[in-house]
Amino acid sequence: MKTILLENIVKNAIVSILLIALYPTVYSSFNALQFLDKSTAVSFLAAIGLVSVIACFGNFAFTYEKIKDQKFDHRLFAHVTTSLLMLIIGLTLEMTSVVVQVVIGNFVIFNFCLFLLYVASVFYDFWDLNRVEL
Hints:
The protein has helices at residues 2-31, 38-61, 72-104, 108-131.
């Protein structure tokens, strides 16, 4: 159990570092929406929301109960799958934040809620790992 828990900590740290490193790119890419009309920005929000829902569904449907923790390849596939889904969730939350800034300006409480949503997803990942007897 200790090995998979350590791997999960490293996985979530790497995903968080990637999200922090990618934020300037997300910001500059979506900040260009200021030159488009607001209805286009709202359309982007709808598309981002769809991607986010799909990633959340995949992330919450996954469970560590079904992996064999003694096999490295099973743990690796589990970590790669959850890290990709967590990365997509984080990126869509970043994109949502930037598009909302374009549409209505900086909304600190909304951004804080998006941050808490990502933190909750990370906590869920650890909870799912800890609730099973591996």
